[in-house]
Amino acid sequence: MTTTEISDAMSRAVDYLSDHRSEAKYTDSAATAVLEDRLRVTVTGPDESKLTTDMPKSIGGRGESPSPGWFLRAAQASCLASLIGMEAARAGVVLSRVEVVVDSESDDYGILGMDDSVPAGPLRSKARIRIEAEAPTDLSALVDTADRHCPVTDAVRRAVPWAIELAGSAR
Protein backbone atom coordinates (compact mmCIF):
# COMPACT_ATOMS: atom_id res chain seq x y z
CA MET A 1 0.00 0.00 0.00
CA THR A 2 1.21 3.48 -0.80
CA THR A 3 1.23 6.35 1.68
CA THR A 4 -1.91 7.73 0.01
CA GLU A 5 -3.71 4.37 0.16
CA ILE A 6 -2.90 4.01 3.87
CA SER A 7 -4.03 7.59 4.58
CA ASP A 8 -7.24 7.07 2.60
CA ALA A 9 -8.00 3.80 4.41
CA MET A 10 -7.45 5.48 7.79
CA SER A 11 -9.71 8.39 6.77
CA ARG A 12 -12.47 5.97 5.75
CA ALA A 13 -12.15 4.15 9.09
CA VAL A 14 -12.28 7.43 11.02
CA ASP A 15 -15.30 8.63 9.05
CA TYR A 16 -17.14 5.33 9.52
CA LEU A 17 -16.43 5.13 13.26
CA SER A 18 -17.40 8.77 13.72
CA ASP A 19 -20.85 7.82 12.41
CA HIS A 20 -20.97 4.44 14.21
CA ARG A 21 -19.45 5.04 17.64
CA SER A 22 -20.88 1.80 19.06
CA GLU A 23 -18.75 -0.25 16.65
CA ALA A 24 -15.44 1.23 17.83
CA LYS A 25 -15.32 -0.84 21.03
CA TYR A 26 -15.06 -4.61 20.62
CA THR A 27 -13.58 -7.77 22.07
CA ASP A 28 -10.19 -8.51 20.56
CA SER A 29 -9.56 -11.91 19.00
CA ALA A 30 -8.43 -14.49 21.52
CA ALA A 31 -5.06 -16.20 21.67
CA THR A 32 -5.28 -19.81 22.89
CA ALA A 33 -2.07 -21.24 24.34
CA VAL A 34 -1.54 -24.97 24.92
CA LEU A 35 1.44 -26.32 26.87
CA GLU A 36 2.67 -29.23 24.74
CA ASP A 37 6.08 -30.60 25.61
CA ARG A 38 8.17 -29.53 28.56
CA LEU A 39 7.79 -25.74 28.29
CA ARG A 40 6.96 -25.49 24.58
CA VAL A 41 3.65 -23.74 23.98
CA THR A 42 1.67 -23.41 20.76
CA VAL A 43 -0.56 -20.36 20.51
CA THR A 44 -3.43 -20.34 18.03
CA GLY A 45 -5.30 -17.26 16.97
CA PRO A 46 -7.78 -16.17 14.34
CA ASP A 47 -7.71 -17.86 10.93
CA GLU A 48 -5.53 -20.65 12.37
CA SER A 49 -2.60 -18.28 12.91
CA LYS A 50 0.01 -20.02 15.06
CA LEU A 51 3.18 -19.26 16.91
CA THR A 52 5.33 -21.37 19.18
CA THR A 53 7.17 -20.27 22.30
CA ASP A 54 9.72 -22.10 24.40
CA MET A 55 11.73 -21.31 27.45
CA PRO A 56 15.54 -21.41 27.63
CA LYS A 57 17.27 -24.70 28.41
CA SER A 58 18.62 -23.18 31.64
CA ILE A 59 15.13 -23.24 33.18
CA GLY A 60 13.78 -26.48 31.71
CA GLY A 61 12.75 -25.59 28.19
CA ARG A 62 14.35 -26.80 25.01
CA GLY A 63 15.25 -23.29 23.79
CA GLU A 64 13.95 -24.19 20.32
CA SER A 65 11.65 -21.18 19.86
CA PRO A 66 11.61 -17.59 21.07
CA SER A 67 10.40 -17.02 24.62
CA PRO A 68 7.08 -15.31 25.38
CA GLY A 69 9.08 -12.27 26.54
CA TRP A 70 10.71 -12.01 23.12
CA PHE A 71 7.26 -12.05 21.50
CA LEU A 72 6.27 -9.18 23.83
CA ARG A 73 9.24 -7.16 22.57
CA ALA A 74 8.43 -8.20 19.00
CA ALA A 75 4.84 -7.02 19.51
CA GLN A 76 6.05 -3.68 20.86
CA ALA A 77 8.50 -3.21 17.97
CA SER A 78 6.13 -4.25 15.19
CA CYS A 79 3.18 -2.29 16.58
CA LEU A 80 5.24 0.88 16.96
CA ALA A 81 6.68 0.48 13.45
CA SER A 82 3.13 0.04 12.09
CA LEU A 83 1.87 3.13 13.92
CA ILE A 84 4.84 5.16 12.68
CA GLY A 85 3.84 4.13 9.15
CA MET A 86 0.21 5.06 9.81
CA GLU A 87 1.03 8.44 11.32
CA ALA A 88 3.48 9.21 8.52
CA ALA A 89 0.76 8.41 5.97
CA ARG A 90 -1.70 10.62 7.84
CA ALA A 91 0.84 13.47 7.69
CA GLY A 92 1.65 12.81 4.03
CA VAL A 93 5.23 11.81 4.85
CA VAL A 94 6.77 9.19 2.57
CA LEU A 95 9.07 6.85 4.49
CA SER A 96 11.83 4.86 2.86
CA ARG A 97 12.77 2.88 6.00
CA VAL A 98 11.49 2.36 9.54
CA GLU A 99 13.40 0.15 11.94
CA VAL A 100 12.36 -0.31 15.56
CA VAL A 101 14.54 -2.31 17.96
CA VAL A 102 13.01 -3.03 21.37
CA ASP A 103 15.04 -4.46 24.20
CA SER A 104 14.47 -4.79 27.90
CA GLU A 105 16.20 -5.59 31.17
CA SER A 106 14.92 -8.36 33.40
CA ASP A 107 15.91 -10.02 36.67
CA ASP A 108 15.46 -13.81 36.83
CA TYR A 109 14.89 -13.60 40.60
CA GLY A 110 11.37 -12.44 39.69
CA ILE A 111 10.32 -15.08 37.16
CA LEU A 112 11.84 -17.89 39.25
CA GLY A 113 10.08 -16.70 42.43
CA MET A 114 13.35 -16.26 44.30
CA ASP A 115 12.46 -12.80 45.63
CA ASP A 116 8.86 -11.56 45.65
CA SER A 117 10.08 -7.95 45.73
CA VAL A 118 11.54 -8.38 42.22
CA PRO A 119 9.03 -8.04 39.36
CA ALA A 120 8.58 -11.13 37.19
CA GLY A 121 8.42 -9.03 34.03
CA PRO A 122 10.86 -6.59 32.53
CA LEU A 123 12.26 -3.91 34.82
CA ARG A 124 12.49 -1.47 31.93
CA SER A 125 12.33 -1.50 28.18
CA LYS A 126 13.22 0.90 25.41
CA ALA A 127 12.83 1.33 21.69
CA ARG A 128 15.59 2.51 19.38
CA ILE A 129 14.08 3.86 16.18
CA ARG A 130 15.69 4.61 12.85
CA ILE A 131 13.59 6.40 10.25
CA GLU A 132 14.49 7.51 6.76
CA ALA A 133 12.02 9.88 5.14
CA GLU A 134 12.03 11.24 1.61
CA ALA A 135 11.56 14.85 2.77
CA PRO A 136 12.49 16.78 5.91
CA THR A 137 9.93 16.33 8.65
CA ASP A 138 9.65 16.44 12.45
CA LEU A 139 10.37 12.77 13.12
CA SER A 140 10.22 13.10 16.91
CA ALA A 141 6.65 14.46 16.76
CA LEU A 142 5.68 11.66 14.39
CA VAL A 143 7.17 9.00 16.71
CA ASP A 144 5.57 10.60 19.78
CA THR A 145 2.14 10.51 18.16
CA ALA A 146 2.65 6.92 17.00
CA ASP A 147 3.75 5.82 20.49
CA ARG A 148 0.73 7.50 22.13
CA HIS A 149 -1.64 5.61 19.80
CA CYS A 150 0.17 2.24 19.72
CA PRO A 151 -2.05 -0.31 21.51
CA VAL A 152 0.84 -2.59 22.50
CA THR A 153 3.09 0.08 24.00
CA ASP A 154 0.03 1.57 25.68
CA ALA A 155 -0.84 -1.80 27.25
CA VAL A 156 2.72 -2.18 28.55
CA ARG A 157 2.93 1.38 29.85
CA ARG A 158 -0.54 1.49 31.46
CA ALA A 159 -1.84 -0.83 34.15
CA VAL A 160 -4.45 -2.78 32.17
CA PRO A 161 -6.96 -4.59 34.40
CA TRP A 162 -6.20 -8.32 34.40
CA ALA A 163 -8.32 -11.22 35.55
CA ILE A 164 -7.96 -15.00 35.57
CA GLU A 165 -10.84 -17.47 35.44
CA LEU A 166 -9.83 -21.03 36.30
CA ALA A 167 -11.71 -24.07 35.00
CA GLY A 168 -10.49 -27.60 35.40
CA SER A 169 -9.75 -30.24 37.96
CA ALA A 170 -6.86 -31.89 39.73
CA ARG A 171 -6.78 -35.67 39.87
Task: Give a short synopsis of this structure.
The chain has 171 residues and is α+β, with helices and mostly antiparallel strands. The chain is 37% helix and 21% strand.
Keywords for this structure?
alpha+beta; GMP Synthetase, Chain A, domain 3; 37% helix; two-stranded antiparallel sheet; 5 helices; single chain; 3-stranded antiparallel β-sheet
Write structural notes for this entry.
The chain is an alpha+beta fold and 171 residues long. The protein has a domain at 3-8 and 67-157: GMP Synthetase, Chain A, domain 3 (2-Layer Sandwich). 37% of the residues lie in helices and 21% in strands. It is built from 5 helices and 5 strands, in the order αβββαβαβαα. The strands form 2 sheets. It has a 3-stranded antiparallel beta sheet, with no helix packed on it. The model has no long low-confidence stretch (mean pLDDT 94).
Give the number of DSSP strands: 5
In what range is the share of β-strand residues? 15-25%
CATH superfamily of the domain at 3-8 and 67-157: K homology (KH) domain
Helix segment tally: 5
The 3D shape can be described as globular
The average pLDDT value, as a whole number, equals 94
Task: Label the structural class.
Answer: alpha+beta
Largest sheet, if any?
Answer: 3 strands, antiparallel
Q: Unreliable runs, pLDDT <50, ≥5 residues?
A: none
Task: Measure the end-to-end span.
Answer: 54 Å
Physical arrangement of strands within the biggest beta sheet? 1-2-3
Q: From the 3D coordinates, which CATH architecture of the domain at 3-8 and 67-157 would you assign? A: 2-Layer Sandwich
CATH topology of the domain at 3-8 and 67-157: GMP Synthetase, Chain A, domain 3
Rg over C-alpha atoms, rounded to the nearest angstrom: 20 Å
Secondary-structure element pattern, one letter each: HEEEHEHEHH
